[in-house]
Design brief:
This protein is an alpha/beta fold and 380 residues long. The protein has a single domain, classed as Metal-dependent hydrolases (TIM Barrel). 35% of the residues lie in helices and 10% in strands. An eight-stranded parallel beta sheet has the order 1-2-3-4-5-6-7-8, with helices on both faces. α10 (311-320) links the parallel β7 and β8 (325-326). The protein starts with 17 loop residues before the first strand and ends in a 16-residue tail after the last helix.
């Protein structure tokens, strides 16, 4: 949801400010990464470009609903693509919505799933350095997501080790649509490194693993493709649970981003039933899947499902656990959720402060802000 009246103050129930778990920055041009690429890989990028498991080299697999996936009012007045101008982001989003912390989710350019894994590793390093120089250093409210070449776990772990301890990085970014289901053991070194350094894994709806976006084949329309993000998340959760990832790494934190969340209760009910009937096949999973959901998984709010009876949304959140849901806007994309309008249910102040701020602070280890004496919230 969005409106052009972006300067309205957040409603009083978000009195402590918000943590936005999904903000999309983008380069103005591909050359923005050149200063961070070795000469070899800069020439490779200029000559061969990006080569992922996507047959549509110049475009995404499906035409998008809006240019650059973005709000009509998100084009910076000084030129450039939505999400490329930090000053405009401050003016349009960070300031009017009292964003105390914003987590960057870089979708493009990407090195996550390059077929040339060495080039992919170089691109990930460049994207990480670009985030620091262009975003988190000039704007301390922003936190970077550590981009890794997930299909080469050895180089992915090396990238994690390189940045470990840098407070600018809030989590490790992976793509749900991977080459293989992400619960499989080839990815376990990444989870081990994440736990060792206290970093959550952030899985934003994205990626091209070389397979159709749905389990029944390639869809015809963007509406189907957009919905399939929820399917990807459910398949991902099932893989992580039944492959034993959460049992092997009980302290692993996984945040699912931009895949909806109303599907979580019904998925857990189904998985619990299957687990109870076929527990002998998965003895390495001693607890019901719903237990892992409430221990190891968090889900962001956008895109918000909107049932006909708003109180049903409250029921879903209650079943998941009030501490499982993190707020996100998806700025500057077309399906942006305005924090002044997103929760149409009559939530009390305590719950709203959890959803807008407290839950994310607990997951990522951010320090809770204290209201200033004037009543204006400040980050601590």
């Amino acid at each position: 949801m969005w409106t052009s009246a972006c300067r309205r103050r957040p409603r009083a129930t978000a009195r402590l400010g918000i943590v936005d778990c999904d903000i999309h920055p983008i380069t103005r041009t591909p050359k923005d990464l050149h200063p961070y690429l070795p000469t070899r890989w800069r020439r490779h990028l200029e000559t061969y470009g990006s080569f992922q498991r996507n047959p549509f080299f110049a475009n995404t697999a499906y035409p998008r609903y809006a240019p650059a996936l973005s709000r009509r009012d998100a084009w910076p007045p000084g030129g450039g693509t939505p999400g490329s101008d930090l000053d405009f982001m401050r003016e349009q989003h960070l300031e009017p919505n009292n964003v105390l912390v914003g987590l960057l989710q870089v979708l493009a350019p990407s090195g996550i799933a390059q077929r040339n894994v060495d080039f992919g590793a170089a691109m990930c390093r460049a994207v990480n350095e670009w985030q620091l120089v262009s975003w988190t250093t000039p704007e301390p409210r922003l936190r970077a997501c550590l981009t890794i070449p997930q299909e080469d776990p050895a180089q992915a772990v090396a990238e994690i080790e390189h940045w470990a301890g840098d407070p600018a990085f809030a989590q490790i970014a992976m793509a749900p649509r991977a080459f293989n289901p992400l619960g499989q053991r080839r990815y376990w070194p990444i989870y081990e490194a994440a736990v060792a350094h206290g970093l959550p894994i952030g899985l934003h709806g994205s990626g091209y693993g070389g397979y159709p976006d749905t389990g029944s084949g390639n869809p015809s329309y963007y509406a189907e493709d957009h919905h399939s993000n929820a399917m990807s998340m459910q398949a991902l959760v099932t893989s992580l649970m039944f492959e034993g990832v959460f049992e092997r790494f009980p302290d692993l934190k996984v945040v699912l981003i931009e895949g909806g969340f109303a599907w979580a209760p019904s998925l857990a009910w189904r998985l619990d039933k299957l687990w109870a009937r076929m527990a002998d096949e998965v003895p390495h999973v001693p607890e019901p899947p719903s237990a892992y959901l409430r221990r190891n998984l968090w889900i962001t709010s956008q895109p918000m499902e909107e049932p006909q009876k708003p109180r049903h949304l409250r029921d879903v959140i209650g079943w998941m656990g009030e501490d499982r849901l993190l707020f996100s806007t998806d700025y500057p994309h077309w399906d942006y959720d305005d924090p002044t309008q997103v929760f149409k249910v009559g939530f009390d102040d305590e719950l709203l402060d959890k959803l807008f701020l407290g839950n994310a602070c607990a997951v990522y280890g951010f320090t809770l802000p204290e209201p200033a004496a004037s009543g204006s919230p400040r980050a601590s």
